[in-house]
Probable farnesyl diphosphate synthase (Bradyrhizobium zhengyangense), 307 residues
Amino acid sequence: MTGTSPSDFAKRLDKTADDTEALLGRLLSDDILHDEIARPKRLMDAMRYSSLNGGKRLRPFLVVESAAVFGVPREAALLVGAALECIHCYSLIHDDLPAMDNSDLRRGRPTLHKQTDDATAILAGDGLLTIAFDIITRDEVHRDANVRLLLTRALARCAGIGGMVGGQILDLAGEGRFGGNEPIDVARIQQMKTGALLRYGCIAGALLGQASVQEYQALDDYGRALGEAFQIADDLLDVEGDAAALGKPAGADAALGKTTFVTQLGIDGAKQRVRDLLARADSAISIFGDRATVLQAAAHFVAERKN
């Protein structure tokens, strides 16, 4: 399997989650920054509600561990991870809205628009999206402004029209929201909607570490395999999981008429695809040797998770 024990991996994952939580708490405090006029309480409360006290923080973890391969200072990687997590949390707020997936439950709590209202939820998502780019461009991330530029551009592309946002509209089209009978490419939708941010967590470490072309490509390949494995595991959980463990309703994909990896491959086929992706991920990062044992364990964690 891997050179990292399950207990050691769990400790590292929990440590990064705790550190990310603390950092987000500071970044989303009520303290007004230079060039800000005010931080409205209702907005900040809503942003904190949807980004604190929940989640495994897998995306920041991937940033921290991919950066650790190159000896990048943990504090810098955590800042990048916090920016990425803000993007992820904003996407969840907007995905849950009535006009999108219309979800009532997220991480075992009412979704933000249920806790507050649609307008507050939309603006809280906007706030998290925007502050992500404030965070990623800070001097503390890297002394080289070109590295910060590359990180920022990559984040915009993974989160934007060619990544997560584009994947979301393709997903909605696949539900028949806009009429017509467009062919559904589940793999492409996954690569964009879910996989792009997970992949960013991996290539961000390479960018922070000013990796060689070969090293960057290895983490890129690993990130693509991990992202697809994550989505297939998610599709399987939607069929086989339960709401209490998931922290959200099970069977939501079927209720919305979504085409998923499970509907296309069947349960056994989907599980075999996950095994193939794990082998691909392991192979991609083999060039790093023992420095990549935690990343290897992360791929297995993603594939075998229960929530």
Observations:
- The beta strands are 105-106, 109-110.
- DSSP finds 14 helices and two strands in the chain.
